[in-house]
Amino acid sequence: MYLVATPIGNLADITRRALQVLAGVDLILAEDTRNTLRLLDHYQLQRPLESLHQQNEQARAESLVRRLQLESLAMAVVSDAGMPLISDPGFPLVAVCVAAGIPVRVIPGPSAVLTALVASGLPAATFSFEGFLPARQAARRTRLESLATEARTLIFFEAPHRILNALEDVIVVMGAERAVCVARELTKLHEVFYRGTASEVLQQMQADPHAEKGEIVLLTGPAPESAGDEALPRRLLTVLLDHLSRRDAVDAVAAATGFPRNRLYDLALSLKEKPAR
Fold this sequence. Notes:
The chain is of the alpha/beta class. The chain folds into 3 domains: 2-107, Cobalt-precorrin-4 Transmethylase, domain 1 (3-Layer(aba) Sandwich); 112-220, 2-Layer Sandwich (Methyltransferase, Cobalt-precorrin-4 Transmethylase, Domain 2), CATH 3.30.950.10; 227-271. The chain contains 11 helices and 10 strands. It has helices spanning 16-24, 33-42, 57-71, 91-100, 112-119, 137-147, 163-174, 198-206, 227-240, 246-257, 261-271, and strands spanning 2-4, 27-30, 49-51, 75-78, 105-107, 127-132, 153-158, 179-184, 192-197, 216-220. The strands form 2 sheets. A 5-stranded parallel β-sheet has the order 3-2-4-1-5, with helices on one face. It has a 5-stranded mixed β-sheet with strand order 6-7-10-8-9.
């Protein structure tokens, strides 16, 4: 079983080894056969294609492994772009292959996660890839709150129609001054990076009529050292400001945490700068 990385935008980014493997396997398992067919046609490769996607991969894993064993086949797994399994299909099949003792080989190549990271201008020595943020605002803010004090660069995939809402939530939860980068349309003709503080990046994207189009990677920089101290007061204020006046919310959090009232007031002001959508 081969796991083959495919281009994330520019078709020229595929490796020679990937093309050799795709040309030689008995079957290619594709997230979307239409997308993979365009890649194969571009390089004049004709191989059998079958779909392997989020809806069918669990049910198909056992039968595919049986075919590998009984027919001595070689198969390749590809996603629509980048490395399989990274927020893409493939894990159930790989798990069954490993359990059955079937060799799994990786053909490395493009990755939107690493491409965005190294060009972001954010620290790259340690990082955490967090996949897609939740679609609903309440769940998205809860997820961001759990990561607000993270000392590593955080990397997320985000849908283009939700990116502005996601940035507003970063501002509310992590603060307007958190370092942020949004990478859009990586390796494609209209590749663009928006860099700066969370509030600056939101303004840049709001001014760009094309900002809510294409493939998007959102990165946030490590939390400042003071973020750990502010995490609990920020979470409490986020909840209380929906039910109390600013003064009452600040008084309640000050009494509960002993946090300086002037800093709580500044936090409360920043949390109310961006109205929730």
